Amino acid sequence: ERERLWRLRHRPAVTLDGERIELLANIEMPEDTAAAMQAGAQGVGLFRSEFLFMGREARHLTRLPDEEEQYEAYRRAVEGMQGMPVTIRTIDIGADKPLDGKAARQEYLNPALGLRAIRWSLSEPAMFLAQLRAILRAAAHGPVNLLIPMLAHAREIRQTLVFIDKARAELQARGDTAGPVRLGAMIEVPAAALSLSVFLKHFDFLSIGTNDLIQYTLAIDRADESVAHLYDASHPAVLRLVAQTIAEARRLGKGVSVCGEMAGDVHFTRLLLGLGLRSFSMHPSQILTVKQEVLRADAGKLADWARQVVESDDPAELLGR
Ligand code: PEP
Ligand code: MG
């Protein structure tokens, strides 16, 4: 079986009815691009940049990565993908991903609802600007998408765009080369999924973070074992938010991808194809299994069934779960 999957490595991911599907890799470190390339990924759909900032004490690193160190890491990821796009997500610390030394904010009861991800970045202007400059510089070496986590408010979007302009201006003033980036927003807070027009006005693409979207929609802490049985990707509320996000992005001709666990779970491949998703990002180890499912699917024929699943009161039953 593993050998059979391995042979799919260089086979394009095309459905029976001829739809080309983009299968991308989620990575945590630049070195992970090797596994992504080996699995035949067509790019990186999610580089979780916070991993450059985490666990540094264990690696005997005494300070957080500065602009130069980040630039090197992003450039290595870009070069590792040999001309294919790399989506770099700005730092998503807080909650389950504490930062060494710095306030992990575990003192709060609900870190997942606290100063996390973009909220944290907007509260640390020097750090945010350094990261943005590093990403823009790496973008001079190959195609880069810049992805912002956990946005919910129009005000946060506006502030983020100001920071990006400022980072670009700083590089220009320094005489450094910045590359172009496509700009994307994670849709992982229900408020974002329910106000898509605001996001689609400002961003080139959306990336659905189902891990957090499930957590926040169902009010289930994704790290709490005692409620893990209630963490349900096939809850109708979750599927309706995912379906709407895909449909709205497509209607406006914007890119849309899923980069949460749902994208790498073969139980959802046919549903997502039927809902119109054409870009999936997952751990490199899941790519070939998902590709096998794509090769067997007829996306056009799945559309009606997918709509029924999403409108159903018991999607899990129709998904055969
Ligand atoms: C997600 O929330 O689905 C996601 C991809 O981001 P992370 O798992 O890093 O929070
Ligand atoms: Mg997330």
Automatic annotation (TrEMBL):
Domain PEP-utilising enzyme C-terminal: 5-297
Active-site feature positions: 259
Cofactor(s) in the UniProt record: Mg(2+)
Binding residue positions for phosphoenolpyruvate: 48, 89, 211-212, 222
Binding site for Mg(2+): 188, 212
Primary location: cytoplasm
Catalytic activity from the UniProt record: L-histidyl-[protein] + phosphoenolpyruvate = N(pros)-phospho-L-histidyl-[protein] + pyruvate
Annotated signal peptide: none
BP terms from Gene Ontology: phosphoenolpyruvate-dependent sugar phosphotransferase system
Gene Ontology CC terms: cytoplasm
UniProt EC number: 2.7.3.9
Keywords: Coiled coil, Cytoplasm, Kinase, Magnesium, Metal-binding, Phosphotransferase system, Pyruvate, Sugar transport, Transferase, Transport
GO molecular function annotations of the record: kinase activity; metal ion binding; phosphoenolpyruvate-protein phosphotransferase activity
Subcellular localization(s) per the UniProt record: Cytoplasm
Family affiliation: Belongs to the PEP-utilizing enzyme family.
Function: General (non sugar-specific) component of the phosphoenolpyruvate-dependent sugar phosphotransferase system (sugar PTS). This major carbohydrate active-transport system catalyzes the phosphorylation of incoming sugar substrates concomitantly with their translocation across the cell membrane. Enzyme I transfers the phosphoryl group from phosphoenolpyruvate (PEP) to the phosphoryl carrier protein (HPr).
Record-given protein name: Phosphoenolpyruvate-protein phosphotransferase
Shown chain mapped onto the complete sequence: 273 to 593 of 593
